[in-house]
Amino acid sequence: MAEGGAPVTMNDVARLAGVSTATVSRVVNGRYGVSASTIAQVRSAIERLGYESSLVATSLRRSRTNVLGLVTHSFQSYTAEVLKGVMEALRQSGFDLIVYANGDLYGTYSEGWEQRHLTRLSGTLTDGCIVLTPWGEVRSSTPVVVIDPAKDSAAPSVTADNLAGATAVVEHLLGLGHRRIGFIAGRSSLAAAWAREEGYRSALAEAGVRVDPTLIGRGDFNPESAVPLARALLDRADRPTAVFAASDGMALKTLEVAKDLGIDVPGDLSVVGFDNIPESALAEPALTTVDQSMYRLGYEAARMLKSLVSGEWEGPSHIVLPTRLVIRGSTASPARP
Amino acid sequence: MAEGGAPVTMNDVARLAGVSTATVSRVVNGRYGVSASTIAQVRSAIERLGYESSLVATSLRRSRTNVLGLVTHSFQSYTAEVLKGVMEALRQSGFDLIVYANGDLYGTYSEGWEQRHLTRLSGTLTDGCIVLTPWGEVRSSTPVVVIDPAKDSAAPSVTADNLAGATAVVEHLLGLGHRRIGFIAGRSSLAAAWAREEGYRSALAEAGVRVDPTLIGRGDFNPESAVPLARALLDRADRPTAVFAASDGMALKTLEVAKDLGIDVPGDLSVVGFDNIPESALAEPALTTVDQSMYRLGYEAARMLKSLVSGEWEGPSHIVLPTRLVIRGSTASPARP
DNA sequence: GTTGCAAACGTTATCGGTTACGTTTCCAGC
DNA sequence: GCTGGAAACGTAACCGATAACGTTTGCAAC
């Protein structure tokens, strides 16, 4: 039963119904020009054989497929949130969704993955694509919406207000009395990483606090990349009283490093992340972070893409969604020596 | 830049390189029989045009595509866990993954979705498919592995030990002193729902406790379906001292209903779920539940499918993975009146 | 100078479905 | 009986890539 024979094609249906494949195609697509009796014949043949049109063959011939694509580098917690939002936006819209993924879960991955996948899909299979956190610029013959674009990307995009979020973090830390604040940056080619660092720098400058370049570590959003950087920051004699990591994954690793070194959080060190992934609320202590609803990012991206594909998008081509500071147990006023 | 012109085809490359499409194909696929100078010509043309082979055209012609599919009804938290596991298993295996999804996030969906999607993909696009929690039996011309199969499904499958998990829950509640234990069942066509209910019944019977049919509500795994059922159970004068819901989603809704009715959990009522989704640990109180690593389910399913596609699977066609009772704050001994 | 053989490359049928176009059928209108 | 025109349906080209097959070329052995 599970191992059905050869797949049923339109040809099989046509032969059984005693008509040409053209007629079957017309019936399947509800086109004009088929007699009622022939329609019944064909439908019954379809029923009998359990025929279902091949997505591949259809999309090769047709320009519209009513399938949208989403290209991602990996599946992490936030990916699921994005997908939920995308699916909600596509609900009863007549569009199906194809998610295309490849490669290492956390490891290295070859440059240009987003462009390769995009090109393979968008020529034919999909009417348009969402690209999740690409590392570089993307181009496509069909509409594209980018979530968390690369720096200087021109493609339509949806992103969180990273600048405001990072500013709020630093103001929160300054308000608590911190002056020496370390920063662990993200992959520099991403606009989000750049904006978060910019928020960190400008908020400090605004408060008249000098930016100490030696307090900035260059990570790449990969949690593991934060380990040596956190260790370097916390090993110093004049270590910072607070560390702001540009992603929750890196912040959680920083918490681990602090624990290893016997540094109490938040007593001796405050730690802040960015993203508000589910794991952050479960950390010990719970992580202060910036919430950027990945669900809404996905939702807005899908809504935008839908309109772009239908050629009826009127709004701006870059959407920026608000962020929200979530204060939890990993931040406190610095100990007075 | 984002709106590139017409897609680049193999024909464009052939024309620019001054060779036939056949030669381009041979170069792309690294086949024998092309001179070094021609290879260089073709490669440079590919580079210049930014050519990428069309997944659709390739899969239509070829029998092997090195793409595996996963068909799902919706994206929920556990879907992401499964996907993480699948991707880990596919890491550096040479297989890409396509996830196909459609339809309502939580709402109704037409019967037979799994079969339709499967047929549309498996004829051509994918070498094999994983089907996530289908509602009925599936058949396909390419290998299929089902996660959480329908009852009486013959297809190769991977599932958690739902019977043992449910038994452990009931024994835990019995051990705490509960005797009136309500049950909110899942979609009855699923093997998992059946096994969880069977575990509930047999554990009670084993302990000599009569199974009261009026304490069993018939849900369908959809969180919303639990609301009226929980309300009915908790509104009764002789309400149960504990409720075991067949999924965390339904258990969390039960917690909400209890809160609405002013019933203290775990003081006046114990609540247990099944699945251990991330939200359960964050609930107030944190939910006692059964962990069935969706990550491992995905991992094992992908491993099995990979072997099936390569025709080298030796193991059993039904894999059952262990479950683990996770005791948190939502269960306690019943109050003595 | 043949012959033999393999390398190198082009031609073309093919996958399954769609569609432009052509052909046949049927009936109303004169 | 003839014409016009629309409805009904088949034929074949086509989408992009692959692979079986045929053809040409290059080179070594006899």
Automatic annotation (TrEMBL), chains A, B:
<keyword id="KW-0238">DNA-binding</keyword>
<dbReference type="Pfam" id="PF00356">
    <property type="entry name" value="LacI"/>
</dbReference>
<feature type="domain" description="HTH lacI-type">
    <location>
        <begin position="8"/>
        <end position="62"/>
    </location>
</feature>
<keyword id="KW-0804">Transcription</keyword>
<keyword id="KW-0805">Transcription regulation</keyword>
<protein>
    <submittedName>
        <fullName>LacI family transcriptional regulator</fullName>
    </submittedName>
</protein>
<dbReference type="GO" id="GO:0000976">
    <property type="term" value="F:transcription cis-regulatory region binding"/>
</dbReference>
<dbReference type="InterPro" id="IPR028082">
    <property type="entry name" value="Peripla_BP_I"/>
</dbReference>
<feature type="domain" description="HTH cro/C1-type">
    <location>
        <begin position="9"/>
        <end position="42"/>
    </location>
</feature>
<dbReference type="Pfam" id="PF13377">
    <property type="entry name" value="Peripla_BP_3"/>
</dbReference>
<dbReference type="InterPro" id="IPR001387">
    <property type="entry name" value="Cro/C1-type_HTH"/>
</dbReference>
<dbReference type="InterPro" id="IPR000843">
    <property type="entry name" value="HTH_LacI"/>
</dbReference>
<dbReference type="InterPro" id="IPR046335">
    <property type="entry name" value="LacI/GalR-like_sensor"/>
</dbReference>
<dbReference type="GO" id="GO:0003700">
    <property type="term" value="F:DNA-binding transcription factor activity"/>
</dbReference>
<dbReference type="InterPro" id="IPR010982">
    <property type="entry name" value="Lambda_DNA-bd_dom_sf"/>
</dbReference>
